[in-house]
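# nightly structure sweep
# worker-07 picked up a monomer target from the shared queue
# config: single-sequence mode, recycle default, output format = structure tokens
# input follows
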Amino acid sequence: MGILTDEMKRMVAEIRLCYAATVSADGKPNLSPKGSLTVLGDNELGFADLASPRTVENLRHNPFIELNVVDPFVRRGYRFKGRAEIVSDHDASALIAKTLGPEYPFERVVKIRVEEALVVLSPVYTLTQLSESEVKQFWLEWYGYRSVR
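# output follows
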């Protein structure tokens, strides 16, 4: 059994958008959205190197990375901490390409060996008695969506 649970894998597959945190050589933080996050294995995630020069450069100096995947409507998700490697990997590229389509060509993949996975949970769940479906309905309405119950 790997670190990534079925629920984590499901959320990554559904959301795909994550925020990748790295640190530059001079110690400054870098946060960058990545829209191609894909599960590569029970302990491994990856995303395409698409216009990611700072992320890649930072990882060359320091391979530690944190990825955050959060469902904006239910206000929960996961943070994945691990070590990244920039590779040309045909199998990983093929998996990631399925989520992107042919309009986004790429040559390299950032593969992350997940060492720790933690839940991200909004304070709304600890400060109120709202259920996940009530939180979701609130945010859907907030963003202008009609009832989807």
